[in-house]
Amino acid sequence: MTLQKNTSIHYELIGPRDAPVLVLAHALGTNLTLWDRQVEPLGGSFRILRYDAPGHGNSPASRSPHTLSVLASDVVTLLDKLGVIRAHFCGVSMGGIIGQYLAIHHPERIASLVLSNTAAKIGTAEKWDRRIRLVAEAGMPAVVEEVLEGWFSASFRNLHPSIAASLTTALKATAPEGYIGCCQALRDADLSQHIERIKAPTLVIAGTADQATPMASAQFLQQKIRGSQLIALDCAHLACVEAASAFTDHLSRFLTGINKRT
Q1: Structure confidence by residue, pLDDT tens digits, 182-237
Q2: Alpha-carbon distance 128 to 96, whole Å?
């Protein structure tokens, strides 16, 4: 396992050196540990690269303005640093719209794309401006309850309080300036008119109880991205956690099928 921390992006790289690389990109307010349930099942077949977005986990917050282009450029820079020419990419929510941008603007780097609980445009400007204002005025605790209600169904939170607690800790530990910067990037990002340009084999995963990026958002992606597949799971926004087993099974089958064709 390679675990690195530098002045830009904190990342973990694990798995066989000759295996295809799979990039895992987390949601807003989480960090690379969001993917803990996928690493072991997939680590024998893929070289897994997961990272912390700016101001999340162990990545420092950037002082420069946050845009979707900048967040995607962080991934390209990391791939270049590691000598990875082409990779599979799986992103949830914020990670998913980063993946869309990469597949549109850097198609030569993306072997396949998994878009989980995401959209071509996530939320409204009013939602993000309100979230930004709350964090700017009162810090991360001001948004914890609202965010958790969106992340998980009530039944999951009741049955798995320790999982909800661990992600609450990660959310509270997120640097306010990093969180605000990513909110600004999401507020301003709209790929609705561009996603038809995605040529990479694509799997779209949606949560039937997801209010942040509802089923209609996933259906729009599936309709616009030629040849893409859509899977619906019984969960809210963080499918890779709430429906971890089914999520990982679908992800594994999709990626295995891609590798067999290449």
Answers
A1: 999 999 999 999 999 999 999 999 999 999 999 999 999 999 999 999 999 999 99
A2: 17
pTM over 0.85: yes
Residue 236, CA distances (Å) to 27, 187, 217, 253 in order:
13, 21, 14, 22
- List alpha helices for the chain, DSSP H: 36-42, 68-82, 94-105, 125-138, 144-151, 154-159, 161-173, 176-188, 215-224, 239-242, 244-261
CB-based contacts of 2-6 (< 8 A; 24+ apart in sequence): 5/58
Domains of the chain: 2-261 (3.40.50.1820)
The two three-digit tokens of residue 20, written as one number: 């295809």
Yes or no: say if 167 and 51 are a contact pair by the CB < 8 Å rule: no
